[in-house]
Amino acid sequence: MPAKKETESVSEEKKLTDVPGIGPGIAAKLEAAGVYDLMGLAVMSPPVLSEMAGVGEAVARKAIQSARSMMNLGFMSGEEFAKKREDILFITTGSENLDNLLGGKGVETRAITEAYGAFGSGKTQLALTLSVNVQRPKEQKGAEGKAVYIDTEGTFRPERIKQLAEGIGADSQKVLKNILVARAFNSDHQILLLDKVSELIKNGEPIKLMIIDSLTAHFRAEFAGRGQLADRQQKLNRYLHNLMKLAEQHNIAIFVTNQVMSNPAVMFGDPTTAIGGNILAHASTYRLYLRRGKAGSRVAKLIDSPNLPENECQFFLTEAGIRDEN
Ligand code: GTP
Ligand code: MG
Description:
Shape: globular
Number of helices: 14
Number of strands: 13
Bound molecules: guanosine-5'-triphosphate, magnesium ion
Radius of gyration: 20 Å
Distance between the termini: 47 Å
């Protein structure tokens, strides 16, 4: 435990500009591309850094090596590592198929799970269901915690929560009490709410799940022009970075929803892409693509997971919640 603390404080104190070869100009370019700290730099490859920062590959290689040695990367005892994994909690989706797709137990803490898909594909239903299920005892595939629900679209429905609670035989009044809802009116407000959540956790609220439905809607609306794409991406990057930090520091699960836009450049397969593109693909640990399937079902596909095979499954949105069968 002390060793971990040391690593954390070292990486928090040192800035990009502390790395030999990285001046303020290069640091600004890196930040614009979503690299804010030594960790971000340490995991890069020399050619990528070289192109991003406009420096030679030798300089890039040296900067990455310096960042790595400044962070003591790679040294965590097996015991420590196992302990960190042991802490992870899982929240069932209510569907065994969907839980299995996500590795067997549902959505996990210390990770961001993103669901993207067209309207009506089930993103909000999944978010609402998880806010109920996080409260279940651990033996019943819950995390015995509260949920924070950041609603950007005004689609949070207390009546629906009641139905979902009844669907698992829980006290609907209690379940509602354990979901802290905030409406985010614009992207700045949405960003500010993260500090509020940290504060709640520090004050002892046992929050184990944070929902953001939708992650991207405000960003998309406010940065609509073509010339604003880079600004939007930068702001979104920083936000995601902070989300990941929150998930990691407090051992909470983060579930975000994302709309799709049609992408005329895609000729084969499904011509839809999540808003936020690649940046989001890097930040989220699990990405689910949801779509309508046969006979009123929904299909979830796991995309780009680092440790699970790309796969898909079927589930249903029922009165009682998310289930394998209708
Ligand atoms: P957008 O936010 O519009 O992009 O869509 P979304 O992906 O969030 O869709 P959402 O999760 O709101 O899914 C809506 C669908 O959920 C509806 O078309 C219904 O099929 C299903 N649904 C919602 N409420 C109920 C309910 O009370 N009972 C049942 N059986 N299905 C419901
Ligand atoms: Mg929705």
